[in-house]
Amino acid sequence: MESFASEYEWNRNKISADQWIGEDGHTSYQRAAGHQKEYYEDLYNWSREFCVEYNLISVAGNGSGTGGYNIAAIARAEVDAPDSSETPKGSNNVKYNTWYYGHPVSGEDYPWCAVFVSWCAEQCGLIDSGVYSKTAGVRFIYEYQTASNGFESYSWREVKQFNGGAFNPVPGDLFFFEGFGHIGIITAVTETAIEVTHGNSSEENVMASLMSGDGYFDKGTIVHMEYPHDDNAIFFFLTEHIHLPKSAAAGILANMEHESSFNPNALGDGGTSYGLCQWHNPDRWDRLMAFCNANGYDWQTIDGQLFYLEYELRTSYPELFHMLMSVEDSEEGAYQAAYQWCVVFEAPASKELKGMGRGELARSIYYPRYRST
Predict the structure, then answer these.
(1) What pTM does this model have?
(2) Are the CB atoms for 159 and 222 separated by under 8 Å?
(3) Three-state secondary-structure class, residue 181
(4) CATH code for 231-370?
């Protein structure tokens, strides 16, 4: 940029201006092709207002877990963080580059949108696990995730929110802007829009942009990430997405441990029950598949099953859902949540006796593990 500005005598103060006075001191000029600076500022402010209104802004966890919701929360928490901006603006001197290169950097040779994604992955332990590779290259991330890890990619035409396609992204998926020159992390999804949090933006910081089928940023590619899920990621979904109390989440986890050991492909009851919650055929397993297929989720993954769990809980078990939302956030509350989930939702043989055992597991193990998170 500096070399072009010098060679062609650009006035950098006029690059983003909608109108200006020429070098003769009196001729007035006005940009005919829109007001880029104002457009980006308006887009940013609108995105922020939308996210606040619809409660899409996440709060970062402790960085110890894995899964799409954890990296999404880490990324989203960097928006408006006091140390997430370049100092000074336009310098590329930002904490993410310092983390990557091992020392402060500046200049145009150090773009950091891919570095920001790598930094977020590091906070969740996803580089050590091999899900991500530490890199500053956008194209490298795409090739690593699709070729090395074998994850599926989808064009913008295949995405439900953009052009009515079947694929429905989830938080933690990666969004590659058109041309693969920029990258961000999907941090929230609605029926009509996708929020992408990305660094090294036009604002020279970390920002969240809302993208819809009729928006400027609609054309891109999404890689559907498959994270090494564990009870941390499930707990995060239950508390941050459904907004259950920690005690209720602990009770559900105690049941899932018994039902499936957190394996979304677990089979039970002679092959007639499936998944995290051992949905039983011929009805509940079929409904799980039908819901996921209709809403663009993979019914064989934890993501798809958790979204179905939420749907089933709200529509088929409203009294249990109300109980879980209002349960006391304590060890005793965790016991009661686990017991009721076992008796009402799972309903195994000897459900009362098993409910007591799962209640004790929630009270003594899962609630103490998560109550301070």
Answers:
(1) 0.56
(2) yes
(3) coil
(4) 1.10.530.10
Phi, psi at 173, each rounded to 5°: -70, 160
Strand-strand pairing, 28-30 and 267-268: unpaired
302 CB contacts (<8 Å, ≥6 apart)?
A: 67, 229, 233, 234, 262, 264, 276
Both tokens assigned to 199: 């660094």
Q: Which fold has domain 41-223?
A: endopeptidase fold (from Nostoc punctiforme) (3.90.1720)
Residue 289 token pair: 């598949």
Spell out the domain ranges in the chain: 41-223, 231-370
User: How far, in whole angstroms, is CA 48 from its chain's centroid?
Assistant: 16
What span, in angstroms and rounded, lies between the C-alpha atoms of 251 and 370?
11
Judging by beta carbons within 10 Å of its beta carbon (0-12, 13-18, 19+), is residue 96 exposed, middle or buried? Answer: buried
pLDDT tens digits along 46-90: 444 444 444 343 322 222 233 577 788 889 989 888 888 898 888
Beta bridge partners of 68: none
Q: What is the pLDDT of residues 90-114, one digit of tens each?
A: 899 999 999 999 998 888 789 999 9
Go through the chain and tell me how many residues it has: 373
| Strand, helix or coil for residue 219 | coil
Contact in structure between 131 and 173 (CB atoms under 8 Å): no
Is the distance from CB of 105 to CB of 93 less than 8 angstroms?
A: yes
